[in-house]
């Protein structure tokens, strides 16, 4: 005996009769829908349903991407990727999940926190090809994302050919596609990316004169993007809302002092440990004074690596910091820097 009656499942039909009935119900307000309009709605609904079921099918039929556990080593709350890149364990777990399940991810954080490099390291851990598109310098999104017309003359005959973009090629294969610095992309690029990033998973090719069939995105092609955020950069509110909705946002924090030391040591093995300690301590002090509004700029890990490179090539720590900071700040800031350096006795 059945204990409970099964709830009645209402199946949604894609027929437009209801719409037509609705328009007839209030004839004074609405005109009856034309056959052409009905056909258009019906076609668009049918297409939406087909795309959606195709996308679900493709995902179900595709083997899931797998990380190589040897390349991601957990130690306490930190994971080391590829033997050098430190990352917070929780953030790694989410990024890993998102790659496995094809969830588009946006990494946000100040410049130099390792957003671009973390994606490069994740690609290695998953043994996936990585293609980076620098959205900040993509001046023509149609050319960069879709392609362009190439005119050539062969035997005196002029030919126009549509050359597809690298983007349209890589999205058809398994891999990671990084839309770097997406916060600097324009509205046109966003509009082309929307259908790539939502349930449609396809790149519109309307700009091609030849084959305008949209390009289907491979189920194992995973999108990452990075955006510089924080007081000195674009706030999330400045990013297109529709674009934000298509990504899972993950904040990337700067790495801890002890991890910075470990990173510098492995990257610059010729620099002695005491020098590395001093470099990191001056770096930390400068950033602390920046937070206290004493120095107008702050230093990123990228800056610190540049200075360490100078030191590894025989320059003094003092000169390294002064040269770099001179280019970044005012004379006023430089005074604070030299006093930090004097105190550290470098
Ligand atoms: N967690 C980290 N471990 C090792 N190196 C890091 C880490 N985070 C940043 N870096 C280094 O800092 C520099 C800037 O990283 P990058 O990915 O270019 O930053 P972003 O894209 O956030 O501006 C690179 O040289 C990178 O190697
Ligand atoms: Mg970057």
What does this structure look like?
This protein is α/β, with parallel strands linked by helices. It has three domains: 17-61; 69-251, P-loop containing nucleotide triphosphate hydrolases (Rossmann fold, 3-Layer(aba) Sandwich), CATH 3.40.50.300; 257-344. It has 13 helices and twelve strands. A hairpin with a 2-residue loop joins strand 6 (147-154) and strand 7 (157-164). Helix 9 (257-267) packs across helix 10. The protein starts with 16 loop residues before the first helix and ends with a helix. Residues 9-20 have low confidence and may be disordered. The chain binds adenosine-5'-diphosphate and magnesium ion. Adenosine-5'-diphosphate is lined by residues 85-87, 109, 111-117, 226, 255, 263, 301-302, 305.
């Amino acid at each position: 005996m059945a204990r409970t009656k099964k709830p009645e499942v209402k199946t949604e039909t894609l027929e437009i009769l209801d719409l037509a009935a609705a328009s007839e119900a209030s004839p004074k307000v609405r005109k009856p829908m034309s056959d052409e309009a009905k056909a258009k709605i019906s076609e668009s609904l049918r297409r939406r349903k087909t795309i959606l079921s195709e996308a679900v099918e493709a995902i179900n039929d595709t083997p899931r991407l797998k990380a190589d556990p040897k390349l991601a080593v957990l130690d306490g709350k930190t994971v080391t990727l590829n033997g050098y890149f430190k990352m917070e364990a929780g953030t790694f777990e989410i990024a890993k999940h998102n790659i496995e399940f094809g969830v588009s991810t946006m990494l946000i954080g100040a410049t130099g926190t390792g957003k671009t490099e973390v994606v490069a390291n994740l690609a290695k851990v998953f043994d996936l090809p990585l293609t980076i598109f620098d959205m900040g310098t993509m001046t023509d999104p149609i050319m960069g994302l879709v392609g362009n017309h190439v005119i050539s003359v062969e035997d005196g005959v002029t030919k126009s050919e549509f050359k597809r973009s690298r983007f349209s090629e890589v999205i058809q294969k398994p891999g990671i596609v990084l839309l770097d610095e997406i916060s600097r992309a324009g509205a046109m690029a966003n509009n082309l990316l929307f259908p790539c990033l939502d349930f449609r998973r396809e790149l519109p090719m309307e700009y091609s004169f030849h084959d305008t069939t949209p390009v289907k995105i491979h189920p194992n092609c995973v999108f990452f993007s990075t955006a510089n955020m924080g007081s000195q950069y674009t706030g999330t509110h400045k990013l297109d809302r529709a674009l934000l909705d298509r990504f899972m946002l993950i904040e990337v924090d700067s790495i801890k002092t002890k991890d910075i030391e470990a990173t510098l040591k492995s990257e610059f093995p010729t620099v002695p440990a005491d020098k590395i300690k001093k470099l990191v301590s001056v770096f930390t002090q400068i950033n602390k004074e920046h937070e206290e509004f004493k120095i107008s700029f702050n230093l990123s890990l990228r800056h610190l690596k540049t200075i360490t490179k100078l030191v590894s090539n025989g320059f003094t720590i003092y000169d390294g910091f002064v040269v770099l900071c001179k280019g970044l700040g005012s004379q006023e800031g430089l005074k604070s820097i030299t006093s930090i350096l004097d105190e550290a006795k470098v």
